Amino acid sequence: MSKDLVLVTGGSGLTGYACVAHALKSGYRVRTTVRRESAIKEIEGAPTSQEFAANLEVVLVPDMTKDDAFLQALQGVTYVLHVASPMANKTESLDEEHTIAPAVHGTTGILKSALKVPSIKRVVITSTVLVVLGSSDSEIYNETTIQPIPPGPFTAPGPAYFASKRLAYRATRDFIASNKPSYTVVNLMPTYIVGRWELASSPAVLTGGSNGIALSSVIGGSRPYPPPGISVHVTDVARAHVEAMTNEQIKTHEDFILNADGTEGVVWTDAIKIAEKHFPEAVAKGILPLGGTTKTARGKADGSKAEKVFGMKMIGFEEQIVSLVGQYVELTEKEQGQKA
């Protein structure tokens, strides 16, 4: 007999689909939302989706800024994993309409609609460590160090994304204070998320988002800005989301940083040594050209609260890279074989 029904928003993304897959494997029924009609087939065609097809439903919510955009999808739901949020990039506008509004109104909208669905017990929101991470080289940041909103207008993706997530977090806290919902709200604050993406169809797709940071040095690239050396495996992020739904230690609204490898962090170019160790044939074939120069900014985040409450030891950087690079090699060899 299936467990409760879980709504996962943004099910076609790296984190979203990992949450869908982990919830299904944990015995839950899952309804997930997507913004593109083409994403429905992408999700339904994935191996995990096909294995648990009887417990999976994919629905279209094209505009999450509309009032009650998620209300129909919330019917009958017990737990909500709100993962969906736009990633700013160089090819789309960085203004209020395209980046800020979907992040803020999507979050407050689902919280408002959840007030109308008495079956909902908890809403888990995918926030980001960037809400609490400051610029100090020495301070170890935790869940209490909330940072200010970067001022607009935005001319680069980074500040636009920071602003959208910090504004969404602030709006969530304001909503809780004003509405005192009967359900609890948990904000999960992952560091840079790394790992296999079951829906990735090509090497180019896999290199998007935070996976692109981890892969950059291995495929001979660099980044326009040095990201802090803090990361977490996507599998752990999904596990934390599902665990947060029912964890009995959480009695009220809580925030949790998700971070592996302790507070000292990692160096992104260490991925080169890991790739040489685990994938020597791919290096020899030139699939992994190495030689990238992605620099690592300082930044320390304390994820010990999450590990303690959720009872999990986060997967370390080496295994994160092996997981990701392994899939990159598989996809590249497949693509090369199709062109031959």
UniProtKB/TrEMBL annotation:
Task: Kindly give the InterPro entries that the UniProt entry links to this protein.
Answer: Epimerase_deHydtase, NAD(P)-bd_dom_sf, NAD(P)_dehydrat-like
Q: Name one GO molecular function term.
A: oxidoreductase activity, acting on the CH-OH group of donors, NAD or NADP as acceptor
- Any idea where the NAD-dependent epimerase/dehydratase domain is? 6-254
Q: Which PROSITE patterns match?
A: PROKAR_LIPOPROTEIN
- Record key words, sorted: Oxidoreductase
Q: Which Pfam families match?
A: Epimerase
Q: Which superkingdom?
A: Eukaryota
Tell me which family the UniProt entry assigns to this protein.
Belongs to the NAD(P)-dependent epimerase/dehydratase family. Dihydroflavonol-4-reductase subfamily.
Protein name stated in the entry: NAD-dependent epimerase/dehydratase domain-containing protein
